[in-house]
Amino acid sequence: MMDTPKRRKRQQPRSRSGCLECRQHHQKCDERRPTCGLCQVRGRSCQYGLRISWGGRPFRKSTFGHCMSSGSKNRLPIIQIQSTQTDTTDARPKHKSAFVYGVAPTSKPYKADSASVVASLIEARPQHVPLRATIEPIKTLQAVTAPPSLFPDLPPAYRSLLDYFTHVLNSFCCDESVKKDFCKTFLPIALDTSHVMASVLNLAAVHRVTAGLPQCTKQLALLRVVSVEQLRSQLDLTSGPPTEATMATILMLCYSEVVSGGERSYSWRLHLEGAASLLSRALSVWKLDSGDSTKRFIARCFVSLVSLANMSVSPPTALVSNLAVQIVGEKGPDPHVDSFTAYSTALFPVFHEFGDLVRARREDAGNVNIPERALRLMQQLELLNTNAAHRDSDFVAPAQSQEYGKVNEAYHHAAILQIQQRLLAVPATTKRLQETLRVLLGILSSVELTNEPCPGVVLFFPTFAAGCAATLSTDRNRVRDILKAMMERYRLANVEHGINVLEKLWSMEKTGIRGLCWENMTGESESMDQAPSADMSRSER
């Protein structure tokens, strides 16, 4: 009987997990990465991936595949999966025909619903948002099973910054409703305008730096350059009334300079000057009583910044200050404790008058009787303070009404100290001045600081004014403790600068230097010149 011939064993069986080229030619692949042996010998491109069929046909020949071919107008970009063992030194071009499952977001911007975006960001209040110390180029590959992003064109690192922005608002919002107004005003504009988005992210990045969190300096510089350059280009294109996007960008840049401590001494005031110049083109629509909620809130931000600038070491120009008065209106709102600033609206004209007197003193205006006007201003303040104790604001939540009352009273006493020291040159050791200081320190110590929006976030001005008037070590320690608690909780660089300047001032007084003047000591070039301050006229002790 003849022997049955044995079937010859196939030398190169099919490879089901090899590279695409070996599988296409039904060749045995040794599956070496990044280039298998056969591909290396034959000098061809070697790729690993998945072959997808569609409707029983090879994907490239299917209807769906045809839509994604290079000849189609609706072609979608394909992301190729790289091997975990890829050798980055292999610079040979990849095979263009290989399809790997996964698509990148298209270049068309995704228009998210503004209300849903704002609501989701308000609800998410991250205490610490992880962010790499160095931001590398971001690949925006999204998994097919992942939920769609509200910002598909925004790289993940910048989405983290946008989330962090809501945390930054806790550092200078007195109330949760004010924080929501910030989000509802600025975020929808940022979704539609790139320079507004860049300025919002810039504010978040600046705060990360002051908080000591990892933040790429190149990314921070890029955000600032983009926001400023695009804003400049937009202003070059038009000479008409300012848009909401233009004003939003300027205010975000101004807040960024305040949060950073003012590395450029006049940067935040320059932003106010620019904002005032633009607002003057169409002042009638930018009012505190405007029917447009967005314009109304932007005007509110501008007025509050000008108000505090008038109490700083270098008040803004008369143009800026007078424009803010026009925005408020001649009569202004009925006096009440404003939830935005935490002090009475009746204080705004007082701060405006104070700024005028400081400018007149600096310009040596002989036609202005500064002492007489300063005394009238003090009497007005004392009357307002007495009345404030009997009025509860209808605009403040009952739970925080008491805290608002404390902060409002603190601002009144701080303004009195400023008038006495800077306009009337009253020595710090004067009994009446020290009595005002004791009352102010008692109020400041009783205000609660929390991680959530609270009136305590605006205590820097009255606390710094108290530090300028403090002569005893016990009083200075109380000021130091309050400012350090604010710095620890809110991480604002201007607070840290305030501590450093007070320490310098106090140490100089210990050496026996008399008659110190805050304004002369710092000079106009100092970065801390943005901090509210007092003329430090001291008497012999």
From TrEMBL:
What are its GO cellular component terms? nucleus
| Classification via Gene3D superfamilies | Zn(2)-C6 fungal-type DNA-binding domain
Is Nucleus given among the entry's keywords? Answer: yes
For this UniProt record, the keywords arranged alphabetically read as follows: Nucleus
Biological process terms from the Gene Ontology for this record are: positive regulation of transcription by RNA polymerase II
Where is the protein localized? Nucleus
Protein known as = Zn(2)-C6 fungal-type domain-containing protein
Q: Which organism is it from?
A: Stachybotrys chartarum (strain CBS 109288 / IBT 7711)
